[in-house]
Design a protein that fits this description.
alpha/beta; 2 domains; D-Maltodextrin-Binding Protein, domain 2; five-stranded mixed beta sheet; transport
Length: about 325
Amino acid sequence: MTSLKLKSLLLTAALAVSGVVSAQTTLLNASYDVAREFYKDYNPAFVAHYKKTTGKDVKIDQAHGGSSAQARAVNDGLAADVVTMNTTTDIEFLAANGVVAKDWAKKFPHDASPTTSTMLFLVRNGNPKNIKDWEDLVKPGVQVIVVNPKTGGNGRYAYLAAWGSVREKGGTDAQAAEFVGKLYKNVPVLGKGGRDATAIFLQRNIGDVLITFESEVLSIDREFGQGKVDAVYPSTSIVAENPVAVVERTVAKKGTGELAKAYLDYLYSDEAQEIAAKHALRPRSEAVLKKHAALFKPLKQFTVAKYFGSLGEAQKAHFNDGGQFDKLYTPGAK
């Protein structure tokens, strides 16, 4: 073989390898609706950190939608390397189908949830309907905008927070069911995901109060301008964990396992926890949380486990077809 031919073959092989390498340096994060601003800031920070520590360049792509819709998309073949969701049930669904590891919650600290949030009320500027707590949401003439709990984790947490608010005051499950039924009678339209619910409230100007994640308050101020909404902290709300997992099915094919793990590991770093706080996601780092005490107002919070066992159990009892939500909510019914 001539040296020219050998050089040509080596060049072809090198190009083929570099093609594989460049394909492997793109990571796709399938995430929930209202996390998009956080990841817009987090991704460049991670890219810089990864370059500094490994010398390698990496590109991060994002896909956003309602948490459950995203989980279904990944299950159906969306080649995400990681999923960053707002409910554990969406990742459990992927684990049950062999898309992520069965023990995904043990792969990272804090049950693989680097941040948490909680559910607040957003009301129109000046709070014209004087909404202060959960019981105000069932008053006649109050229109509530909320995400469909069948399509987004935001909606599931809102439902469970409303149910738990009755239990926290000593009410029974029967009283909680009655209260939640009344609340959904005040819902003129269900959002598909968190961002869709915000658009219904602010762009279509429907509703008096939006139940959503604490983090959405800042996003709205940034996107629509300060003074459009006021945040109302109810007397009690729920701890909403934001779980993450490596999509084993994808990384096995692409060879991106090490990169995917590094991407999720870095969410626990001081820098990432600071970025989370900046976007009103409650950091796990006690030091960072303390530093931002003015932003994260003290709020009596209860866990999902306290009244529902787990999100998986809540899913079966409340949100699966024929569950409690279907019994309580009839579209268009008043």
